[in-house]
Specification:
The chain is mainly alpha-helical. It has 14 helices and no strands. The radius of gyration is 19 Å and the shape is globular.
């Protein structure tokens, strides 16, 4: 039983999924005046199940390339810990479970958003873009941006402008984040014949592109303040400070493309996105005098 659980934990990548769940929370709380704990729970559960399924299908599709890369060669499928059919069956069960949760406990619009993310991640990104173009994460990154859409859809059964601005924030965050990862995993991606940006254009051009996307992402974070009256000065100034520091790290990466600088930017970018979403929740709680 313990071995089975460890295998599935590696397949569904709960740590990565947690970022999607965090980005769904602002939409849930901003989208409905009187949010219920039950709605939050069921929405996050349905999102978790769908996101988990996408990671399972991704590892089935990339099993041969995963076996060539040091970072991924010990994943369950390349190691033979689970069969392809077993992983596929589990993936489809997760999709069905997600649909059941959204249909019975939330609404269909939130399911459509979550399912669209799975389709984009599996077919657009994993199958079509990732093996073919260095712009794979720019276009395919839409799959990881749907958290805010799911949250707003679950809360209000609609997709208002603030939902799309939060979507755009993550869309602009994604290339900078993953290209930093690709810089210090360049050899792995080259071995597996993935045309990641640093493999095709080199670290220096990648770092400059990260810098540009970081500025655009930071602008979108500040822009969210002007798109809604539901956050105030605490969000504005806290986010401004975080964005200035992130831009500074991206500039350091331009000046020095070594692994240490890339890792510093990569890990801070995760922290940044987590914290910005929690700041939205905290500021909204103060503005509305609500306890989350």
């Amino acid at each position: 039983m313990k071995h089975w659980l460890l295998v599935w934990l590696k397949l569904i990548k709960p740590r990565v999924t947690s970022l999607v769940l965090v980005t769904a929370l602002p939409g849930l709380y901003l989208g409905l005046e009187n949010i219920s704990g039950a709605l939050v729970f069921w929405t996050l559960l349905g999102t978790f199940l769908m996101s988990s399924a996408s990671f399972v299908f991704n590892q089935v599709i990339e099993k041969d390339r995963d076996a060539q890369m040091d970072r991924t060669k010990n994943r369950p499928i390349p190691r033979g810990d689970i069969s392809i059919n077993g992983a596929l069956a589990g993936g489809f069960i997760l999709v069905i479970a997600s649909f059941t949760v959204f249909f019975l406990k939330v609404n269909l619009l939130s399911f459509y958003c979550a399912f669209a993310a799975l389709i984009a991640y599996v077919f657009l990104y994993t199958i079509y873009l990732k093996p073919r173009t260095e712009q794979n994460i720019v276009i395919g990154g839409v799959a990881g941006c749907v958290g805010p859409l799911i949250g707003y859809a679950a809360a209000s059964d609609s997709l208002p402008l603030p939902a799309w601005i939060l979507f755009g924030m993550i869309f602009l965050w994604t290339p900078a984040h993953f290209w930093a990862l690709a810089i210090f995993l360049e050899k792995d991606y080259d071995t597996a014949n993935f045309p990641m940006f640093p493999v095709i254009h080199g670290k220096e051009k990648t770092a400059r592109s990260i810098f540009v996307y970081t500025i655009l992402y930071s602008a979108s974070c500040i822009g969210f303040y002007f798109s809604t009256l539901q956050v105030g000065s605490f969000y504005f100034f806290s986010t401004l400070i975080l964005c200035v520091y992130m831009i500074y790290l991206s500039w350091k990466l331009v000046k020095n493309t070594e692994e240490k600088s890339a890792k510093s930017f990569f890990f801070f970018s995760i922290f940044h996105l987590f914290l910005v979403n929690f700041i939205i929740l905290a500021d909204f709680a103060v503005q509305s005098k609500r306890i989350l």
